[in-house]
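REQUEST ID: PR-0412
SUBMITTED BY: lab tech R.K.
PRIORITY: routine
TASK: structure prediction, single protein chain
INPUT:
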Amino acid sequence: MSRVLRLNTLLDRCFQPGAVPLAALSQDLKRLDALCKTLGVSELSSFIDTTAVELQQAVELIDDEVRPTGEAETDPETGLLYGIEDMRWQPIAAGMSSLEALQGHLQRERPGAAPSPLLAELAYCIEALSPLETEGAQFHLALTAD
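STATUS: complete
OUTPUT:
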């Protein structure tokens, strides 16, 4: 089972799940974390929330005989099996510093080249987070099974 990152945001208890899988970010995470250290910004992995994967692992550990029958209730705010408080959130301003530093560095490495999938995903994240930054919103990179 592959795992991928998705960009989730939260503003005034309005949860917005990420619809776009960030496959390139997921694949290059170790390299990007090392680059973040070099650039003096927070590592992207520090913004990851693993709630979805942890819940999935817990469900898989439960034996069918123990598992209750019927559908599990979803949280009314998130539409997921867990709520806003169960997830780990970060200020958008902290993430923007890392995302913008990575984008700038990677663009300087490839002047004039067509945008790579990684640069496109960084641009997507920056564009999605930028308008929410001044409003005090929060975000995380949700690790999900894809």
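NOTES: The helical segments are 23-27, 29-39, 51-61, 92-109, 117-133.
REVIEWED BY: pending
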